[in-house]
Structure formats: structure tokens, C-alpha cells
UniProtKB/TrEMBL annotation:
Organism from which the protein derives: Larkinella arboricola
Pfam families from the UniProt entry: adh_short
Residues forming coiled coils: none
Domain of life from the UniProt record: Bacteria
Alphabetical list of NCBIfam families matching this protein: PRK08303.1
Name by which UniProt lists this protein: NAD(P)-dependent dehydrogenase (Short-subunit alcohol dehydrogenase family)
């Protein structure tokens, strides 16, 4: 890939693993300087207790051709976010791309439980991690981003606005979290419009994140072995696919046409022509509606 983002400064908030890591690495591959944040470092684990660290992500960014800078931040702590943005301003004097990918609710969601049975403590914690973190980060980061036109903000969520509007996401708390982020992107798009900046709600498809691979007891190398447990996993994608979607948007001089839009990695792949690492273009959200939700046998033919 050409170093099309050389000289650009990005902040990927929530880049320890999953989509955040994939996005950070692809931004690095395009030449960007990428600040990667999260709570897990080599010396301190978060409540997740998982092995991936922000230092590893930063190293992957640098190995890909960019410059990765790891900063430990809890995005629920306003002072830490404030200090992060002050550091970016001090060291770079600009912020061109903000990716709000903070989540942290995988182990808090209680699937198929109605609100009166779901743990209230877990549900409210989930909402704080999914929504408050994004608002706190935007509050401090956007004044730096809007200093010049062309800035790009990606609000990462699960599901498009069209899909989430008509489908219950199997938990009130999860449903509210993922729908709220889409509306958050739309509202910020209105506020950033006068500054010539762009805000987009972006969802990957069925992500082959570290957590998802562990759930099925497979690795990226043998992920297809999971199809015996979940045949529809055939439509899944790597975290680098949504990362390439972010790069495509960031390098499009006319990306403002997407302002306020809810879109997906699959839709953007058709628009810009990029592929996943295996050369395919998985269109997960069309597949979910037309195959999985329709009760048809798993078959990704025509969907990747």
C-alpha cells in the first residue's frame, strides 16, 4: 500500500485488540502516526484479563510502516483522556483521524435475558463503557480535530442503522449501546458540519476477533474449523477488513459525502474496491438478512 496517510495523525481509542487493533495497523500501513489506547499493558491487565496489550498494537503499527505510540488510558476517566489529547497536541499539533472503538462489554452482556433478569450492575457498566467513553473522548479530542477542515471521526459499533432499527439485538443493554453509538455519530456529524469535518458510524461484519476465535476454540489459521459449531461463521472477516475501510475513507478526498451515514465494512468494500486479507469482500450484513435471519443453510456464495 502507498504511504497515502504519511503526515496524518490518528487516535484509535480502544486499540488493544479486535477491530481497534486492525484499524490501527492498517492506518500504520498507510503511513500514519497512530496513538493507540487501552487499559491493558505488559505490566497491568484490565478487567478483561486477556493477554493482548497496547504496546503490542503499537509495535504492529510500526512494523506495518507507520509510527505506533501506545498510551494507557481508561476512557471513563476524563482527566486521563484530557491528558492524552494534550499530549497529542503537544507532540503533533494536530489530529486528523479519531476512531472511537472503545467497547469492553463482551463479558457483561447476558444474552436472551430480559431487562428484569439481566444484572443491572453489568448492564449499566456496559452502557458506560460503550457510550460514556465515546462522549468523553470526543469532548476532549474534537477541539483539536476541528482546527482544520477534513478531519474524520469513526464511531465503531455493531450493526447498521437499518439493521438495528428493525432487529432486537438479544439484550436491551446491548441493543441500546450499539444503537446509541449510531445516533452519537449522527449528532456529532451535525455539530462538525460547519468545520468541514466528517463523522461516520461504521460497523464490521462478523468479526474474527481474538475473543471470538477463542470462543470457538480456533485460531486465525484454522478459523474454518469453527464452521462445524456455527456454519454461518463462513461470512466472518478479519479485523483488518474494517481497518482497510477506515483507510479507504481517510484517503478519499470526498469522504464528507458520508457525513452522518451509518455504513459497514462490506458496503465500503464495494464502494472502494478493497478486500480482506484473503482477497474476498465479505458482505456480512446483507448475508445476515438474506441468509441467516431467513433461516437458510449457511452458504456465503455471492456474499464474499
Amino acid at each position: 500500500m502507498e504511504k497515502t496517510l504519511t503526515g496524518k495523525i490518528a487516535l484509535v481509542a480502544g486499540a488493544t485488540r479486535g477491530a481497534g487493533r486492525g484499524i490501527a495497523v492498517e492506518l500504520g500501513r498507510a503511513g500514519a502516526t497512530v496513538y493507540v489506547t487501552g487499559r491493558t499493558t505488559r505490566s497491568q491487565l484490565s478487567e478483561y484479563g486477556l493477554p493482548q496489550t497496547i504496546e503490542e498494537t503499537a509495535e504492529l503499527v510500526t512494523q506495518a510502516g507507520g509510527k505506533g505510540i501506545a498510551v494507557q488510558v481508561d476512557h471513563l476517566v476524563a482527566e486521563q483522556v484530557k491528558q492524552l489529547v494534550e499530549r497529542i497536541d503537544r507532540e503533533q499539533g494536530q489530529l486528523d483521524i479519531l476512531v472511537n472503538d472503545i467497547w469492553g462489554g463482551e463479558f457483561l452482556t447476558e444474552w436472551y435475558k430480559p431487562v428484569w433478569e439481566h444484572s443491572l450492575e453489568n448492564g449499566l457498566r456496559l452502557l458506560r463503557l460503550a457510550i460514556d467513553t465515546h462522549i468523553i473522548t470526543s469532548h476532549y479530542a474534537l477541539p483539536l480535530l476541528i482546527r482544520k477542515p477534513g478531519g474524520l471521526v469513526l464511531e465503531l459499533t455493531d450493526g447498521t442503522a437499518e439493521y438495528n432499527q428493525s432487529h432486537y439485538r438479544l439484550s436491551l443493554f446491548y441493543d441500546l449501546a450499539k444503537t446509541s453509538v449510531i445516533r452519537l455519530a449522527w449528532a456529532q456529524a451535525k455539530e462538525l458540519q460547519p468545520f468541514g469535518c466528517t463523522v461516520i458510524a461504521l460497523t464490521p461484519g462478523w468479526l474474527r476477533s481474538e475473543i471470538m476465535l477463542d470462543l470457538f476454540g480456533v485460531s486465525e489459521a484454522n478459523w474454518q474449523d469453527a464452521l462445524s459449531k456455527e456454519p454461518h461463521f463462513v461470512i466472518s472477516e478479519t479485523p483488518y477488513f474494517v481497518g482497510r475501510a477506515v483507510v479507504a475513507l481517510a484517503t478519499d478526498p470526498d469522504h464528507h459525502r458520508w457525513n452522518g451515514v451509518s455504513t459497514s465494512s462490506g458496503q465500503l468494500a464495494k464502494e472502494y474496491g478493497f478486500t480482506d486479507v484473503d482477497g474476498s469482500q465479505p458482505d456480512a450484513w446483507r448475508y445476515v438478512v438474506e441468509v441467516q435471519d431467513a433461516g437458510l443453510p449457511a452458504d456465503a456464495t455471492g456474499y464474499r
